[in-house]
Automatic annotation (TrEMBL):
<keyword id="KW-0812">Transmembrane</keyword>
<feature type="transmembrane region" description="Helical">
    <location>
        <begin position="77"/>
        <end position="94"/>
    </location>
</feature>
<dbReference type="GO" id="GO:0015226">
    <property type="term" value="F:carnitine transmembrane transporter activity"/>
</dbReference>
<feature type="transmembrane region" description="Helical">
    <location>
        <begin position="100"/>
        <end position="123"/>
    </location>
</feature>
<keyword id="KW-1133">Transmembrane helix</keyword>
<keyword id="KW-0029">Amino-acid transport</keyword>
<keyword id="KW-1003">Cell membrane</keyword>
<protein>
    <submittedName>
        <fullName>Glycine betaine/carnitine transport permease protein GbuB</fullName>
    </submittedName>
</protein>
<feature type="domain" description="ABC transmembrane type-1">
    <location>
        <begin position="97"/>
        <end position="276"/>
    </location>
</feature>
<keyword id="KW-0813">Transport</keyword>
<dbReference type="GO" id="GO:0031460">
    <property type="term" value="P:glycine betaine transport"/>
</dbReference>
<feature type="transmembrane region" description="Helical">
    <location>
        <begin position="50"/>
        <end position="70"/>
    </location>
</feature>
<dbReference type="GO" id="GO:0015871">
    <property type="term" value="P:choline transport"/>
</dbReference>
<dbReference type="GO" id="GO:0006865">
    <property type="term" value="P:amino acid transport"/>
</dbReference>
<dbReference type="Pfam" id="PF00528">
    <property type="entry name" value="BPD_transp_1"/>
</dbReference>
<dbReference type="InterPro" id="IPR035906">
    <property type="entry name" value="MetI-like_sf"/>
</dbReference>
<feature type="transmembrane region" description="Helical">
    <location>
        <begin position="144"/>
        <end position="170"/>
    </location>
</feature>
Amino acid sequence: MLNNILDVVPNMPLAKWTDNATDWITESFSFLFDPVKEQFEKFMDVTSEALMGVPPLIIILVVAIIAFFISGKKFGLTTFSIVGLWLIYNQGLWDQLINTFTLVLLASILSVIIGVPIGILMSKSNIATAIITPILDFMQTMPAFVYLIPAVAFFGIGMVPGVFASLIFATPPTVRFTNLGIRQVSAELVEASEAFGSTGAQKLFKVELPMAKSTIMAGINQTVMLALSMVVIASMIGAPGLGRDVLSALQRAEAGAGFVAGIGIVILAIIMDRFTQSMNNRKEK
């Protein structure tokens, strides 16, 4: 009897509806997807080639100098950056590192550009919060592999769909932390700025965003880490970089090669994580 109640509504063809929607979007907006893919590929190729054109020693020294100053002139992060990047170069993975860095950098920048304004909107409107929050929940809980399907459908294979999939997966932390940071700004400060005749834009850019900077930077840090976590997954749809070496080692059951490529990803993750954290701590002082 109970089973009959559950079977009153026939099976809904969700998979078919999703396929139809994806096909419709792909066909209807191909005029947009194709130029975006072409231009992004050119831009990323130029960026990667420009970075690869710089001698590795110069990049290592520049990173070490930046690490030295943003860490408060301490040698821990500086030494780790030099040794870690040298190890990656020593293992013949420098070009893969540059490709991975390019993918993560572009995905992170796009996530921040999109995420911060949406977070500001959510902080200003409870209606927007109620609408956007479930979407963010969906984006964060959906298995990352699922994002590869529409990415390939819209942009084919290569680095562009990898950036697209990383963008979807990595944007929510920036949105959530921006919303949280602005909402946590002291109401007294906001009222004081209004009492002095500040406009909405002045209140946002001179009071709320500066006060919420620490929280927003924490969200950006998480966005960078999530974008980096997509490197191996994005390699399944042709994205170049260290993730492709990990995937190749997995397919061939080569534990050594997989370990070395994985160490390269770990080194890059630690450097980027410490950089964003140090920049945040430095601004707080």
